[in-house]
Amino acid sequence: MNHGPRNKLFVMMILQFFIWGAWLPLIWGYMGTAVAEGGLGFSATQQAWIGSGFAIASILGIFFSNQFADRTFAAEKFMAFSHLVGGLAMLGLYWVQSFPLFFALMLIHSILYVPTISVANSLAFSNMKDASKEFGFVRMGGTIGWILASWPLYFILDGKTGFDATQARKAIFLVSGIASLVLAAYSLVLPHTPPKKGSEKNAWIATGRRLAIPFILVLFIVTFIDATIHNGYFLVTPGFLEKSAGFEGKWIMPIMSIGQIAEILAMMVLGGVLAKFGWRKTMLVGIAGHALRFAIYAFFPQNQPLIILVQVLHGICYAFFFATVYIFIDAVFPKDVRASAQGWFNLLILGLGDLAAKWLFLPLAASLTKDGVTDYKTLFLVPTGMALGAMILLALFFRPPSFGPEGESSASAAPH
To answer: For a FRET experiment, which of 55, 118, 260, 296 has its CA 20 to 30 Å from that of 111?
Structure first.
């Protein structure tokens, strides 16, 4: 593949994850803060419903959106339409204050945005000659986009406190919405990726049947466990850094962004790591990163230099497991169902894993909190144990049809 298409795909990923990264970190503080203090005053239940938008969208995506992406529409046109309408919905959130309308607009955005994550991956893979070597670079654009999304918010919030700071947070919807409209237009210049015709009428059914193949089923289960841990990281780390590790609130986002920077470096070496160590060992390293990070949280909570350093593992966790899973899906599933296959795994990563994390870690943290003090050691031993269990499951029962992606085509890697 020449550098022209690859660079276009790189920019596509920057915008794709800029949209998400612009609103996700700050929406919770805006929704939960009282109206008198500049927020929306939504209850915890209302916030949970809004936070479930991605999970709902990931489920619908399997049966509807990814089917269209696989069989009906050119991928770039699907991207353009989805980001146009989804971007308008996101812009509308800037002015909305009532829960029913806010939830409706967020749900519309989620239903249109979530499938584009799978479609963006599928579009990228369709225009690569060697996904194992090229996807790391292209997907690195998503990490850069997430980091770049924090800069407009830095200048918007700079110098503001109290009511003004909370009110300024709603600018996240303008930043995200505008980026979505930009990607809608940019999608029209992406490489043409026509729909793929297949013998199965329903791509999601064809994909679901392959979960009966043992190594795919094992990976599906392990992905759910790892996605729960991954989403839990974002739920429990901010409070831990401020309340237990002793960092000032203003340093939370910069400290956590270290993981995003490390992810860039991990993506750059992912192709070489896969070629040398293969599918299983690479994924095991990614899961091991979760176990080590949460173990350090549990046993060395006051060691600030170590807590900062261990954020590097977040990048390794994402690149070596989740990005590897996406490459693996492209290698083992037939071309005509790959977007739907990406959708099945995104159901775990963005949907069920996210829901499981909220229902597991938030109530667990609340039950371990007495007089405002949380027993973080007990809390963090739970994801540590989950990660170790996932590693054992993957090491013993994940037996893919090939060692790694080097030198193989999708057809040769496809299970029979």
So the answer is: 260
Rounded-to-integer distance, Cα 33 and Cα 312, Å? 31
**CA-to-CA distance for 149 and 132, rounded, in angstroms?**
27
Contacts of 388 (CB under 8 A, 6+ apart): 291
Q: Which residues 6+ apart lie within 8 Å of 65 measured at CB?
A: 82, 111, 112, 114, 115, 343
> What is the pTM for the complete model shown?
0.77
Is 320 in contact with 265 (CB distance < 8 Å)? no
Residues whose CB falls within 8 Å of the CB of residue 307, separated by 6 or more in sequence, listed in order = 241, 245, 255, 296, 297, 300, 301
Q: Which residue has the tokens 């800029």?
A: 18
| Straight-line distance from the first to the last Cα atom of the chain, in angstroms, rounded to the nearest whole number | 29
Alpha helices in 244-311 (DSSP H): 252-299, 304-309
Which amino acid is residue 309, in one-letter code? L
DSSP one-letter code for 62: I
pLDDT, block means (10 residues), the chain with 416 residues: 77 95 80 86 84 83 64 86 97 95 96 89 84 82 86 75 81 94 96 74 71 91 96 86 81 81 88 91 97 97 95 93 91 76 81 86 87 92 98 95 57 33
The three-class DSSP label of residue 370 is: strand
**Nearest-angstrom CA–CA distance, 79 and 116:** 6
What's the number of CA atoms in the CB half-sphere (13 Å) around residue 62? 19
Amino acid identity for residue 52 in this structure: S
